[in-house]
Amino acid sequence: MSSSSSTTAANHGGGTPITAFHSDIIRSHILNRLDGSTLASTSCASGQLLTLCNDDHLWREICNSNWPSTTDPRVRDVISGFSSGYRSFYSDSFPAVRHQNSAKRTKKRSLPGTSTELISAVDIYCDEKLIYSKVMVTETHSGWFTYSPFRLDLLDPKETVPTPLAFDGENGNGMEIASNRLRVSWVLIDPAKNRAVNVASLKAVDARRHWLNEEVHIRFAIIAAGGDGELVQCAVMVTCGGSEGEEMHVRDVYMQVEDMEGKIVCGMKSLGILREAMEGQRCKSSRRMEKEKYEMFVKMKIESMERKQRRERSLDMAFIATGVSIFLAILILLLNRS
């Protein structure tokens, strides 16, 4: 072996560098086996790998694998207009939204644009197996959307989605099983601005059983920046039901934006909140982090309600005191006259 060859091998730990392989081999036998996060990290290794990892075909396969709804022609056409195609869509939709503090958010808050519709790409899984996928378009320019409470219903009134889970409403085991094994992805896409955001948490952040009909209500929520220095939750609610011991069915799935008081935000304000989330920063997420954020939001919500109740009690006492004072003043005046 020549000295130059020995030096080259030594520089690479005695092995052959990956860049020595033909680009087609790297692309078809190595890069196509990576997930999105690993592929993005690999692109930072060298200029050649950056070029190979930016292949839109690789990112399309990753997006289609993560969100089968992206194979829909309507979604595919919109993604083609993103700045870096499927890689940009993945960067928008995979990481969690990082809500900013109120000062920064006030300065950067975007105003409603000219979008006339929102596209929802929704996928429901059980044990990582797809059980339902749908794409729907919602108009955003009518007065009905602007001023009505913002709520998007996925299923038709009589439509249900079967699951391989058994319904157990008696002792509550079905609630825990469903919240651990069901997963929802709800990607909202703004075709006018070519931006997207996933408004469902990686796993359920809350699950409750209705005391009367024993239906299971599962919440997948992310916390985002709202108006006036407050936070809001973008919540995807899933309702499951069935007969005891038989197959569990998903009976209702909807998405809405709720403020600190638990009120559903109107369409115009929700659209501004969602656009800000689309344009905002992203961060790595985990089930624990999402759960902690949701619990923090619930705690702040309870504290806000308690403050409101204290203010209302103070006002009630002030009104009562004022009324008593007026009554006594009138009574004294009448006694003096008599």
Q: Over all CA atoms, what is the radius of gyration?
A: 27 Å
Beta-strand residue fraction: 15-25%
Query: Pairing-aware structural class of the strands and helices?
Result: alpha+beta
Compute the number of helices. Answer: 12
Biggest pleated-sheet summary: 6 strands, antiparallel
What is the first-to-last residue Cα distance?
A: 126 Å
Mean pLDDT over the residues: 84
Q: Low-confidence parts lasting 5 or more residues at pLDDT below 50?
A: 1-12, 101-113
* Secondary-structure element pattern, one letter each: HHHHHHHEHEEHEEHEEEEEEHEH
Residues in helix, %: 40-55%
What oligomerization state is this entry in? Answer: single chain
Number of strands: 12
Question: What overall form do the CA principal axes indicate?
Answer: elongated
Describe the structure.
The chain has 338 residues and is α+β, with helices and mostly antiparallel strands. It contains twelve helices and twelve strands. The strands form three sheets. Strands 4, 5, 8, 9, 10 and 11 form a six-stranded antiparallel β-sheet that branches. Strands 3-2-6-7 form a four-stranded antiparallel β-sheet. A two-stranded antiparallel ribbon has the order 1-12. Helix 5 packs parallel to helix 7. It starts with a helix and ends with a helix. Residues 1-12 and 101-113 have low confidence and may be disordered.
